[in-house]
């Protein structure tokens, strides 16, 4: 095994994901404590599709409930049924340690692949229909989460209601959660090594994941800095702000005029996922972006291998519910339900409620929304 170069452990440590490096947006509200994902049923996710299949067409749509598998393993089952990987459609990638419901699509001419999928223990096909086109990554509005938290502190229900209400009013911080950074939280460091031209494990696909993790680390660092500066519910001159209702983005030229809209959660600042197709911000916003790059010893031009994107600092949390449920042997647990738009992480909301490390570190790298 190759030994790390002198100083590598300390440098790598700067790129490891830790919730403790990211400030809370509800520090004024006590946490519930507790643990999640004791069993897969404690974490239920239901995909909210952008559209439903029309009933006719060349692609078979399958609504699948799975327990104990990630989406990749469902794709592999369909491939065993003879379907080429590129012909299989999914809207989003779902975790293994959960019970999830999502749509997949396969060309109509592979009915035997459905049997391979249905044969997996813990998988149920809830519905089947047809549509004219393959399902694509991002073809979903969001996800509905139903979560059980065990071992909570006294007064947890009241604290959870207060935290969810505050997050709904202030916006949920759009952190990249631990799923993005791999089993030991260090994928971003491998992304740095890719930038340097060093050898890293895995092929081209893993290199993309590593670079994506590095982009995500810089995004989190920039969002953390804005929260520390009291800019979470504000926009500043030079920001590219995004409208929550339409998704339209515009340059903020007068922060005094636009900040009231941000405070009403009509708009939020966006931050860069550095890449060749993303414009660097100007004025005050550009200075903050450059300061984060400088802190990590990086330059914008190093990210030309990535398309890049802009990601909102906040997302809307809707349809919140809080309750309790009785478990075995007289134990009770807290139950939460809420809806988030696509690309955002339930763990960011849970952290504000629980005031605990949530799913850190986590195993699976997240999907690639910008490419």
Key terms for this structure?
371 residues; alpha+beta; Pseudouridine synthase; four-stranded antiparallel beta sheet; 9 helices; 14 strands; disordered N terminus
Account of the 3D structure:
The protein has 371 residues and is α+β, with helices and mostly antiparallel strands. Among the domains are: 8-28 and 167-315, Pseudouridine synthase (2-Layer Sandwich); 51-137, Pseudouridine synthase (2-Layer Sandwich), CATH 3.30.2350.20. Helices cover 28% and strands 23% of the residues. It has nine helices and 14 strands. The protein has helices at 8-13, 71-80, 111-118, 156-170, 187-195, 204-228, 255-263, 283-296, 346-354; strands at residues 43-49, 59-67, 89-90, 99-107, 123-131, 140-149, 172-173, 240-243, 249-251, 267-273, 309-312, 314-315, 318-326, 332-341. Strands 1, 2, 3, 4, 5, 6, 13 and 14 form an eight-stranded mixed β-sheet that branches. A four-stranded antiparallel β-sheet has the order 9-8-10-11. A two-stranded antiparallel sheet has the order 7-12. Strand 13 (318-326) and strand 14 (332-341) form a beta hairpin. Helix 4 packs across helix 9 (346-354), helix 5 (187-195) packs across helix 6 (204-228) and helix 6 (204-228) packs across helix 8 (283-296). The chain is globular. 41% of the residues are buried.
């Amino acid at each position: 095994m190759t030994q790390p170069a002198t100083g590598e452990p300390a440098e790598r440590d700067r790129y490891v994901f830790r919730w403790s490096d990211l400030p809370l947006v509800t520090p004024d509200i006590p946490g519930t404590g507790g643990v999640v994902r004791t069993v897969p049923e404690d974490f239920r996710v239901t995909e909210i599709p952008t559209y439903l299949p029309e009933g006719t067409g060349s692609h078979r749509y399958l609504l699948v409930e799975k327990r104990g598998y990630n989406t990749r393993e469902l794709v592999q089952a369909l491939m065993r049924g003879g379907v080429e990987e590129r012909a299989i459609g999914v809207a989003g990638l779902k975790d293994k340690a959960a019970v999830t419901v999502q749509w997949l699509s396969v060309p109509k001419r592979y009915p035997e692949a459905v049997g391979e999928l249905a044969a997996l223990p813990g998988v149920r096909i809830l519905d089947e229909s047809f549509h004219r086109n393959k399902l694509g990554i991002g073809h979903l509005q969001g996800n509905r989460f139903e979560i059980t938290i065990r071992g909570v502190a006294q007064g947890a229900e009241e604290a959870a209601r207060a935290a969810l209400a505050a997050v709904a009013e202030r916006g949920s911080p759009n952190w990249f959660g631990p799923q993005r950074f791999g089993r030991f939280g260090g994928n971003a460091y491998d992304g740095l090594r890719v930038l340097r031209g060093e050898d890293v494990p895995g092929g081209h696909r893993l290199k993309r994941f590593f670079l994506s993790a590095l982009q995500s680390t810089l995004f989190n660092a920039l969002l953390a800095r804005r929260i520390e500066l009291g800019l979470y519910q504000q926009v500043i001159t030079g920001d590219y702000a995004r409208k929550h209702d339409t998704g339209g983005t515009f340059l903020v030229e007068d922060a005094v005029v636009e900040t009231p809209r941000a405070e009403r959660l009509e708009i939020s600042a966006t931050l860069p996922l550095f890449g060749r197709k993303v414009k660097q911000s100007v004025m005050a916003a550009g200075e903050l972006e450059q300061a984060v790059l400088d802190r990590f010893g990086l330059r914008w031009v190093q990210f030309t291998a990535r398309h890049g994107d802009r990601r909102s600092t906040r997302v809307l949390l809707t349809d919140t519910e809080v309750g309790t449920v009785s478990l075995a042997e007289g134990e009770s647990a807290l139950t939460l339900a809420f809806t988030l738009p696509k690309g955002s992480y339930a763990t960011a909301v849970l952290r504000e409620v629980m005031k605990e490390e949530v799913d850190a570190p986590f195993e699976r790298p997240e999907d690639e929304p910008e490419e």
